[in-house]
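Hi R.,

Here's the chain you asked about this morning:
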Amino acid sequence: MGCVVKKLKILVGSKNPVKVVAAKTVFELYYPDHEIDCLGLHAPSKVPDQPIGEDETRIGAENRVIFLQANHDADFYCAMEGGAADFSFGPATFAYVVIANRDHTSIGRSSNLPLPPVFYQALLSGEELGNVLDNAFNTTNVKQKGGAIGLLTHHHATRESTYTQALTLAMAPFNFPELYIGV
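And the predicted structure, written out as C-alpha cells:
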C-alpha cells in the first residue's frame, strides 16, 4: 500500500521568483509532511510600483491576496509588498506580508533596512527602488535577486531571507488559531 501524500496549494501574488521561493520555504518549514505546490501569479497591488509609507505598502500586499482569493482556489494565499518611508531616524525600506486561508488573514512586517537619503529622494521622485539600485550599483534586475538588502549588507542578508523571516512570523495565527479568534 502506498503512502497518501498530503498536498497544500499555495498561491503567491507575484511572479517574482524571490517571493515564490520565500513562500515555499516557509510552508515547507511549517508543513514538512505535505507536498507544497507553490505558484506565483500576477495579482495587482492597486498601489504605485514603489509604495511610499507603511499604509500604502500594507494595502498593496492586502490587495494582492484579495485578488487571489477572488479569482483562484488554494489552501493559502500570500503576498509581499516592499515599500519605503522616512521615519524619525531616517529613510528605510521594508516589506509587508499577508498570508490568508479561507478562515483567517495574518499581516506581518519585515525589519527596516536604512536607505541612503539620495536613494529615498529618487523614490519620492517616482523611481522604483530596484531601478535606483541597478543604476547605482551597475546591476541588472536586482529586485529579483538579493535586492537592496543584499547589496547594502554585502549579501549577509537578502530580500528572500527578509521575506522568509516576515512570513515565518506571520504564520503564528495559523499555528494557534484558537488564540487569535476574532482578530
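Residues 8-115+157-179 form a domain with the Maf protein fold (CATH 3.90.950.10).

Let me know if you need anything else.
M.
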